[in-house]
Design brief:
Length: about 290
């Protein structure tokens, strides 16, 4: 077994270097880990939710720059991911959502901005539909979804069942616009992540219906920014088209150049600036409304 730190551990060290605190909270059947950095002149709370097999550290290069702009930052490791434990109960999609819901309601006492990528995007969309009053804004980055049948979902989830290092070599380049030189160092740690008991249960226990949200529920979404990189390789273009059909008209779509499934890894500065601009726009609109009244 290698004694070298994993990619996720290195990202955790990076966050601690910038003053992020490592926290743990027991939530029902799971001990959830998260990084936190409170701002003394807090403008708002930003919560970042990562994708499958990833961790909170995958947003590392966004978090401190946004904290410097005046925001409290929270970034959880989802159950069976990163430093969070496996659940003591079978981790199907319903239980997975319940654990995140309980964590969010325990840790975040007021309205916040929710930012989710891939699996974290699907989870964030579900949370936003059920709790629109809790959110100031929703940012979806290549969210999982857009499947049109159980058969299509079954074929897709078969690629998430990792058996060997070859699966990592095949899978990981899909998430980038351009694969970085360090990529081979991530193959084995990512394989271990994808083979965790809870994550295997989540993949197996998620059905097509988990992605189906009723139109009347979707209409309740808060103001939403939807980011889908032009170099997206993980999901086919028709998934974006399906989201455009289903989501309400107030959702704003952006398709930036030079980023793939995880823009926070390809171009963290662009993502940081875009989120900062979005929040600044909201603050200006809020100030104008206050001045009018």
């Amino acid at each position: 077994m290698s004694m070298l730190p994993s990619h996720d551990q290195l990202l955790g060290y990076y966050l601690r270097l910038f003053g992020f605190r490592s926290r743990r909270l027991r939530v029902k059947s799971c001990e959830m880990h998260y990084f936190e950095k409170r701002h003394p002149q807090e403008k708002g709370v930003l919560v970042f939710v990562h994708g499958v097999g990833a961790s909170s550290g995958h947003f590392a290069r966004l978090l401190n720059p946004l904290w410097k702009k005046g925001y409290t930052i929270l970034a959880p490791d989802l159950p069976s991911h990163g430093q969070s434990s496996d659940s003591e109960e079978y981790l199907d999609s319903n239980h997975f959502y319940e654990l995140f819901y309980e964590w969010a309601n325990a840790v975040i006492p007021k309205k916040f901005v929710l930012i989710g990528n891939s699996l974290g995007g699907a989870l964030s969309l579900c949370y936003a539909c059920e709790n629109p009053e809790r959110l100031k804004h929703l940012v979806l980055i290549s969210p999982a979804g857009g499947f049109e049948s159980q058969d299509e979902w079954d074929k897709f989830k078969s690629i998430l069942k990792f058996q060997s290092i070859e699966d990592s070599k095949r899978f990981i380049p899909w998430i980038y616009h351009r694969a970085p030189l360090y990529l081979p160092l991530t193959y084995r740690p990512f394989l271990r992540s994808m083979q965790r008991k809870g994550l295997r249960e989540l993949i197996e226990g998620t059905e097509f219906q988990s992605f189906c949200l009723a139109p009347h529920v979707l209409k309740q979404l808060p103001s939403t920014l939807f980011i889908w990189g032009k170099s997206e390789k993980f999901f086919p273009r028709k998934h974006l088209d399906q989201f455009r059909k289903l989501l309400p008209s107030h959702v704003v779509y952006e398709e930036p150049e030079g980023v793939g499934h995880c823009p926070q890894l390809d171009n963290p500065k662009w993502v940081t600036d875009r989120i900062a601009t979005l929040l600044c726009e909201k603050e200006v609109r809020g100030s104008l409304r206050a001045a009018v009244y």
